[in-house]
Amino acid sequence: MGSPGRVTISYASAAEIEGNYRRWCAMAGVGETPLGGYGRELAQAQRRGLLASGMAPSAVRAISAAASRGGLAGAVAARSLVLVAQHEREVIGGLYAGPEAFVVQRLQPWGTAAQARALVGLMKVGVLAVEPEFRNAGVGAKLLRCAADRAATGRVRLMYGSCTPGADLDGFCADRGVRVLGPGEGIDLSPVVGVPAELDPAKGERLAAVAVGDGPPVALSVGATDNRAPAENGPPSANDSRRRAATGNRARRRS
C-alpha cells in the first residue's frame, strides 16, 4: 500500500504490550519460542518503571538501581525498548529490542567492566512486526529508525538482529544501512566489549548488524560459526538457563 498517512512511534504502555506483543511475535515468526511469551514480563517491567529506565545518556545509576531491584533481568529491562506504531490511534506494529542477557553472562570471566560495556553497548532487535495491511509503507523502517535513534542517544554502539536464510530482508536492510552477514558469519564484539569475544549465528540463521552513534565498524569473524548444539530461543531472563536470549545466537570467547 502507499503511505498510511501520519504514523506515530512511541514507547508502548504496559497495556499495549499485553494487548499486542504476542501478536507481534507471531507475525515476526517467533511466537512459538519462549520470546513469544515474554510480553508479560515486559509489561510488568513497564509497570515497575524499569523498562527503558536506563536509556538516558548518563543513566548508570538507573541501570544499577534496576539491577538492585531485579538482578540481571532488571538491568536488561532498563536497557530495553518496546515501541508501538499507531495510525489514527490504531496499533499497527511494534518493536522489541534490548541487550541479550546470555551475552552479558558469557562475559563474566572478564569481569564486570566487560559485562557493563555489553549491557550498554549492545542491542538486539528481537521483534519487528507490522500489520499486513500496513506493510511496504515504511512503518517497519520508521520503527527501526526510531529504535536506532534512541539507542544512539543511550550510548548503544552496535545494533543487530537475526533472520532465517529464506527471509527476504536483504533489500530492506541494505536500504537502511544494515549489513546482512553471510551464512555462518559472526560479529566481532571486541570493539564494543573491550575483550576478545564473538557472536555466532544460531543454526539456520543469519545475522544483520549496524553501528549506531559513534560505534565501531561491523566486523566479520573468521570461522565464527559453531552450530554443534541446537539453537536455543528465549527471553533475556537471568534465572532460567533454558531461556537464554532473544534468539539463541551464541556468544563465545575468542582465544
Oligomer: single chain
Q: Taking all residues together, what is the mean pLDDT?
A: 83
| Main sheet record | 7 strands, mixed
What is the general shape?
globular
CA-CA gap between termini: 50 Å
Protein name: GNAT family N-acetyltransferase
Would you mind describing this structure in some detail?
Strands 1-2-3-4-5-9-6 form a 7-stranded mixed beta sheet, sandwiched between helices. It has a 4-stranded antiparallel beta sheet with strand order 10-7-8-11. By secondary structure, the protein is α+β, with helices and mostly antiparallel strands. The chain is globular and about 50 Å long. Strand 2 (81-87) and strand 3 form a beta hairpin. The protein has helices at 14-28, 39-47, 60-78, 101-106, 112-121, 139-153, 170-174, 190-193, and strands at residues 7-11, 81-87, 90-98, 122-130, 158-163, 179-180, 186-188, 197-200, 206-211, 220-221, 250-253. Helix 1 (14-28) packs antiparallel against helix 2. The protein has a single domain, classed as Gcn5-related N-acetyltransferase (GNAT) (Aminopeptidase). The N and C termini lie far apart (50 Å).
Question: Which labels suit this protein?
Answer:
seven-stranded mixed β-sheet; globular; four-stranded antiparallel β-sheet; Aminopeptidase; alpha+beta
Indicate the topology.
Blueprint: E1 7-11, H1 14-28, H2 39-47, H3 60-78, E2 81-87, E3 90-98, H4 101-106, H5 112-121, E4 122-130, H6 139-153, E5 158-163, H7 170-174, E6 179-180, E7 186-188, H8 190-193, E8 197-200, E9 206-211, E10 220-221, E11 250-253
Parallel strand pairs: 4-5
Antiparallel strand pairs: 1-2, 2-3, 3-4, 5-9, 6-9, 7-8, 7-10, 8-11
InterPro entries: Acyl_CoA_acyltransferase
Region (Disordered): 219-255
Protein name: GNAT family N-acetyltransferase
